[in-house]
Amino acid sequence: MSVIMVNATNLLPYEPSTDPKPLRVSSAEETEYGSVNINVGGGITTPAWCSKITVRVPVGAGAEHLTTEGAGIRTGASTGWTPSAPAVSGGFAVITFTPARAVQFTGQIVTLTLSNIAVNRTAGQVSLAIVESSSPTNGSFTDKSGAVVVDKFPAGFVFRNFAPEKIMVENGEAAVLRWEGSDAKYTMHWGDTPAGVSLDKERVWPTPRGLTTVTGFMLRAEVTAGGSTLTHTLTTAVTVRIPDLVVRNLTVQGPATFADNVSLSNTAKDLTVAGSVRGAGSSPLRVSQPAGLKVDAALNVHGSSTFANNVAVTGSDTTTVTVTGSLRGAGSKPLRISQPAGLKVDAALNVAGASTFDNNVTVATGKTLRAGGPVQFAGAVQAYGSPAYRRSWPQQSVPSFGNYFHATAPTDGTLSGQVTGPTGISGSTTRLTVYTDGRYNNITPPAQPGMASFSIPLRKGQSVWIYAEVNPDLYRVFMTLTVLWFPMGQSLDLQVHSAGAPAPTAETEQGSESGPVPQEFVALNMPEEDIPEADPETARQPTDAPEPG
Asked: In this structure, are residues 158 and 549 in contact, taking their beta carbons and an 8 Å threshold?
């Protein structure tokens, strides 16, 4: 490989690459230009926030230096990051990459680019020092060091066009591979061969035996220069027509045809079919074993079944017959249960059509009767309770992104609210975000004195987060917010986890004549990690929000 990665104390992983591959040094006749790209954050497994990354490029003419022209390096970075111009000092070109604000790495990749590098004339390995200002949390940032190592191959070094003569061979046929390359030590790794095959002089290599399955090949070139071993690899693959197949687990998603018997070599193993097993053509599947068919687990029948004799369920009283589709009476007759004890359903009963009950329907104490569609009642029914929670935030106290309002619905109901803001003031933007169930609901209030209203249905146990974003933040003093919770069926208080602002004052509390008194202020209890701000392009849910269902 032409690049390797070295980690020291840094929290973030770094994966470098070069262009061209491999990177070559300049000669007296021609200056070689190249680029180094450093991918940051891929495959991260521990929490990490970063406020800046500094890369130090050794400047000089030696094997341990990358270029003699540090000031000529051009820089670039992923969106949201700003690179500085290289500052050459003390034998290094120092470039600092800074995000607009501290970034949490959760698997996304940030690319730092150094281009227009005039590579010096001495082959060897170069260590690019990296200093990251990072922290496991969004605060207390400290500098942590690491490095990536870049190989500089001799001037004019060539290693390319590694490919098979035929991309597909017959089963048992040997493959022939060719490549172009300068003088180097070449080692071929292929298939399941435990060790590589050394090829010091050849630029063509036939496999020592025929291939029976798809086979991958990796060719490694090694050159010693500047007191270091420089490494670069190329890969390719050869397929086999009608290959042998040896697998640990096999999943077949399309039709499969076996020209011979299918046997299980171990009697203790099972043949599992995710789809169906059918007889040939239109013939039914037949079990010719005199002992018949024994099913030790579940038997799922998706089509029509005809039993020429009784069907008996043996075992204990807990043994059941499970029907995935429907169970009907013969012809147009209804299904009848002649057992005097009637029908007992121990789990959910789903009725897709109209149902008529000739007697009372009783729901046990503490249980719920639910309907997937409209429900009509003969008498009066209370649909919504009185507001079981009401909260008003006056100016200067509306919840912000870092101090949000977080609550959970104790029952089905509707969360409503009204918000005013400084919309219309030149240079300002205002947005109220209501996040729930994986969705960001953004409300922009009109210019004052107007207000925006919102109503969002919540299911029992569903959480909601509310916070306002004002730019610039000084205009937050003009915002006000009122939130009301209307439970369905019974007046249950909203379960508040973090109130996000001072407790209601006497002026903001509701009167006793309008419904239940708001619940007491709940002390703010922020999670260890802040929730990310909602972005229309790359919105992410709060860290303590449930996964979308």
From this structure: no
Mean pLDDT of 452-472: 91
Cβ–Cβ under 8 Å, residues 93 and 59: yes
Can you tell me the distance from the alpha carbon of 34 to that of 51, in angstroms, rounded to the nearest whole number? 28
Please tell me the predicted confidence (pLDDT) of residue 103. Answer: 94
The whole-angstrom separation of Cα 531 and Cα 549 is 19
Q: How far apart are CA 516 and CA 405, in angstroms?
A: 20
Instruction: Give the C-alpha distances (Å, rounded to integers) separating 329 from 292, 322, 334, 335, 523.
Output: 27, 16, 5, 4, 61
- Contact at 8 Å (CB) between 146 and 10? yes
Contact 73, 85 (CB under 8 A): no
- For 336-393, write each residue's pLDDT tens digit: 776 677 777 777 777 777 777 777 777 776 677 777 667 665 554 555 656 768 888 9
CA distances from 78 to 36, 75, 279 (A): 14, 11, 58
- pLDDT reported for residue 503: 40
pLDDT number for residue 513: 32
The contacts of residue 149 (CB under 8 Å, 6+ apart) are 3, 4, 5, 6, 125, 126, 127, 128
Nearest to 77 by CA among 59, 50, 58: 50
**Residue 170 DSSP SS3:** strand
Sign of torsion over alpha carbons 213, 216, 219, 220: negative
Does residue 454 register a pLDDT over 90? yes
Across-strand partners of 15?
39
What single-letter amino acid sits at 8? A
Task: Please give the DSSP secondary-structure letter assigned to residue 72.
Answer: G
Q: Is 283 helix (H, G, I), strand (E, B) or coil?
A: coil
Considering only residues 545 and 425, tell me which one the structure prediction assigns the higher pLDDT.
425
